[in-house]
Each structure stands twice: as structure tokens, then as C-alpha cells.
Design goal:
single chain; alpha/beta; 7 helices; about 35% helix; binds zinc ion
């Protein structure tokens, strides 16, 4: 199945997915009353609906997402989150949602989206499209830039993951952003937690903004780590 077909076939609505997280995590002792949600999504307002759905299910989240859903909050950010998390039973619990995003237009164009009040289509994820355009342009050397902090860090972080000599598709880049975000959050949480007992559910995927204005999720991965033991959450 090509990527446009994969995105068109995305049938799990965001709201249904979030409902599933409540059900799946309740079975392993994660409830809104004993967890803090960590939301990592791109700054794009198109992701507002996703964040709202998380808030309705899990309460107001601690937000860590930069452009492209990369995470630059570091262990300091996660230490702050850790100091806010409930822990009455002696354990702290995070529910992490790390979701990158892509648009899909009515003609199957990946990365294009029709926004409210705009005649012309625009890009989603704009940050990843801009990075991919630079790769297509032959650029390979990326360094941090204090005048464009998030985008330059996105480029340097994702450049480490690029396959040699080829430019990934936009969906592949969104998937790389997802994987990088989860890996970085795992490391930051580990560094922040030190000897504190922290159990974490990691939920990640790509949100597809469809031509009918509906959001769906694809490439969902879920796992939960309790007392250092990781378990896959089949979705
Ligand atoms: Zn974006």
C-alpha cells in the first residue's frame, strides 16, 4: 500500500483512540486521578483537537511539543513534570502522547491541508515539509541557530536519523520525528527520575488531517513500563 493509500485508509478517529487509551491503561492501573498526561505535539493549531481530546480524558496535560513534535524540554522539563505528578500510592505515573502529523488533501496529496478561512491549501506538518525541501535542495549540514531555535534543532536531531543518500518521504519524516520524540522523552524521564519510582505509558503515532476535516491516527505504538518492566500495548 502506498503512503497516500495508507493515510486514506486511516480509520481510527482521534476521539476513539483516546477512549481506547483510557480502557487499555485502566487495566494496568493508570487512571486520570493518579497520572499526569505529557503531550508532545507540533505547535500547529490543527493539533488543538488532539490536545483537547487528551485533556478531556486525562486532565490538563504538561506540554512539551516543539515544531514537528520534537522535544527539547530536556531532563529539566521532565523534572518539573515529575514534581507535579500525583503519587499517593508511592508511584508516579506519566501518560505520554507523542504524535507528529501530516495533512492529506482530497486528491491524495500528502502534506497538504485545507484550513478554515483559507482559499489555498497549506502544508502540514509545515516544519517537516520545510526540512524536507532543504534536503531535496541537497543541503546536508545542519547546525543550531539561535535565531531559529526549534527548527534548527529539529533539523540537527532528524539529520542523525536520515538514510544515507536518500530523502525520506514526508510520512517517513513524520515517523522519524515520532521515534526521535519517544526516544528523547524516555531518556529525559530516566535522567529526571533518578531514584523516584516512575511508571510511564508511551503512546505515539501520526495524526492524519483528512480532506473531510476529520483527524485519524496511523502507525500507533503503545507500551507501558511499570517498575522497570516494559510491556507492549496491542492497539
Ligand atoms: Zn507541524
Amino acid at each position: 500500500m502506498d503512503e497516500a493509500a495508507e493515510l486514506r485508509a486511516a480509520s481510527v478517529a482521534v476521539t476513539d483512540f483516546i477512549t481506547w487509551t483510557q480502557w487499555a491503561l485502566a487495566r494496568v492501573g493508570f487512571r486520570p486521578s493518579n497520572c499526569l498526561a505529557i503531550v508532545d505535539v507540533c505547535r500547529d493549531e490543527l493539533m488543538g483537537e488532539f490536545s483537547d481530546a487528551v485533556t478531556r480524558a486525562w486532565g490538563t496535560p504538561f506540554e512539551v511539543g516543539a515544531l514537528g513534535a520534537l522535544v527539547f524540554a530536556g531532563p529539566t522539563g521532565m523534572r518539573a513534570a515529575l514534581s507535579h505528578v500525583p503519587g499517593e500510592d508511592g508511584r508516579h505515573r506519566f501518560v505520554v502522547f507523542a504524535f507528529s502529523h501530516v495533512g492529506l488533501d482530497a486528491d491524495g496529496g500528502v502534506g497538504r491541508v485545507q484550513r478554515r478561512g483559507m482559499h489555498r491549501e497549506s502544508t502540514a506538518c509545515g516544519a517537516l515539509v520545510a526540512f524536507r525541501d532543504q534536503l531535496l535542495d541537497g543541503q546536508t549540514a545542519f547546525t543550531p541557530d539561535l535565531e531559529d531555535v526549534e527548527q534548527s534543532l529539529l533539523r540537527t536531531r532528524l539529520a542523525r536519523l536520515l538514510p544515507l543518500g536518500e530523502v525520506p518521504s514526508l510520512v517517513e519524516l513524520a515517523d522519524m520525528a515520532r521515534r526521535a520524540a519517544v526516544a528523547d522523552l524516555r531518556r529525559y524521564i530516566e535522567l529526571a527520575s533518578e531514584d523516584e519510582p516512575v511508571d510511564v505509558a508511551y503512546l505515539s503515532g501520526i495524526v492524519v488531517h483528512g480532506p473531510d476535516g476529520r483527524d485519524a491516527v496511523v502507525r500507533v505504538e503503545g507500551s507501558v513500563t511499570i517498575d522497570g518492566v516494559e510491556r507492549h500495548l496491542p492497539h
